[in-house]
Amino acid sequence: MLALRELSVSFRGRPVLRNLSLDLAPGETLGLVGESGSGKSMTALALMGLLPPGFVASGSIRLGDTELLGLADADLCRLRGREMAMIFQEPMTALNPVLTVGAQIAEGLVLHGLMAPRAAREEAIRLMERVGLPDPARRARSYPHELSGGQRQRAMIAMAIACRPALLIADEPTSALDVSLQVEILALLREIRDETGMAMIFISHDLSVIHAMADRALVLYGGLAMETGPTRHVIGQPAHPYTRGLMAAIPRGNAHTERLRPIPGQVPDLSRLPPGCPFAGRCALGDAHCAETPPPLRTGLTALHCHHAEPAPA
Amino acid sequence: MALFLIKRLLGLVLTLLFAALVIFLVLEILPGDPAAMMMGVSATPESVAALRAELGLDRPAAVRFLEWLGGFFTGRLGLSYTYRVPVAGLIAERLAVTVPLSLLALGLAVAFGVTLGTLAAAQAHRRADLIIMGMTQLGLAIPNFWFGILLVLVFAVGLGWFPAGGFPGWAADPMLAFRALLLPAIALALPQAASLARITRSTMLETLSEDYIRTARAKGLSRSQTIRRHALRNALIPVLTILGLQFSFLLAGTIVLENVFALPGLGRLLIQAIGGHDLILIKSLVLFYVATAILVNAVVDLAYGFADPRLRVGRA
What we know:
The complex is a heterodimer. Chain A is an alpha/beta fold. Chain A folds into two domains: 2-83 and 165-305, P-loop containing nucleotide triphosphate hydrolases (Rossmann fold, 3-Layer(aba) Sandwich), CATH 3.40.50; 84-164, no CATH class. Chain A has eleven helices and twelve strands. The mean pLDDT of chain A is 91. In chain A, the strands form two sheets. Chain A has an eight-stranded mixed beta sheet with strand order 6-7-8-3-9-10-12-11, with helices on both faces. Helices cover 78% and strands 0% of the residues of chain B. Chain B has helices spanning 2-29, 34-39, 45-55, 61-74, 87-122, 127-141, 144-158, 174-208, 211-219, 223-260, 266-275, 279-307. Chain B is globular, with a radius of gyration of 24 Å. The A-B interface holds A 48, 50, 73-74, 77-82, 85-86, 88, 90, 93-99, 107-108, 111-112, 143, 145-146, 156, 159-160 and B 210-212, 214-223, 225, 229-230, 233-234, 237, 307-310, 315-316.
């Protein structure tokens, strides 16, 4: 349903995302994992055709039978919100402060010609009820500042699923919320996904969230896919030194005996990435060759880009 | 909300009272006896004293101050000594020119300023933006009385499309009256439109970088739909404040332009009253200007609450 081939994004000639290829089937969830600056959000924005000015995408993005790269904005507008929708990280700032929540949810339905304004307003109330907003009829007339953070994120979800898109991109939808709210929102997203059969790209820096949400995981670092495969293999039997490092850095919950092991070094500056493997400078296996030459793809239980590590045999 | 309104209203009344007191005291301290001025140089001291008594100028200042204030409610603001008619009637008659003139100028300034500013922001750093910003620079730099004279030279004297000055009154032919006001309104609106365009551009650019703009685009709205439905109202909230402040400059502009175009409005009346040392008339006129500026800013404050739901008091 969604196919990315060699998708690259660059800013002023500098690559921020390199040769990303992936496929997504209806009903499937892909988890994009990575630290800030790894290129996760850029991937999402490139998919939506909403890259900030100055960013250039190349390669291929096919949604169904449509090639999205190079499509005119007017044609993309017909797809955005209708075929693919997005939930953003910050529920505080992602809603328009001067429009009522109900109006913002109903807007897309009218825009894409699915409903008349009056019917859309009623549908907005139903959607708000679906995402678990209490007293939806009254809440629909509220302004975003009158809602709590969790309620706003629910409203955001209602807005994104309003037109029943085939693909939902959720960019760190729970990172700005309390842990207890996080669990509720994740459960809600999973329910809706299973109900509607939509495909989902779930972006998070949190491996436990990816583990809970995604069928497949893709680990990004410095704009390059490090390792990808079924979530249980990527998390359970990681082969790439970076994925291993990430797993080792997760607290296991025993504060007395455990030593946390952070990955040494710093996330590289995106404007100063080496031509080869972006992780070379921090990697235990890294050598001069790694930083010079792009790592080859090796496939097994998972697929990874590395000069040294081999995935477990499939 | 009610408490907020009462507080706001109380503040308004106090400001007005203070302004009235300052105006009254300044004119009280100024040298020059209005009665002597009216009688001319050949008047005898007896006849001046008689006139003073007739005008009530021999009574204590405090009594006259209160009487003057009361006059704003009863319409008895005294007689103008130069025109020898009641001040209240004189002001009312002149409002028929100044109010339409300022509203027309304000309308033009907002329409052109907001439209051009939005356009410039949508085309930021491209040719249209550079042209619009260049125009606003000129609009700010040109004094509006000079621009008024230029408009007269081109459109009245040269092309003959508009009258060069004067005002035929609304009664005879409203269209003709409107045409008499159009050139001065354009001249008045020019610097206002220029600064509104610049402010709108910068608040619009700021608004367009907000997260909710990206949300709107993600819903499938085109760039121009996003600007119209999501950005404009947010961008205009700060513009509203500036508009309130600018209104005072617009009023000051009417004083100059009514004289350039020989329009019988409040501004021309004020200049004539000053020339004729018509203190009673000056006093009421100045307070009238001050009150208008203060009231307009109070209205802007209230409009703020309508434009931005976050500022509505008493709802949560």
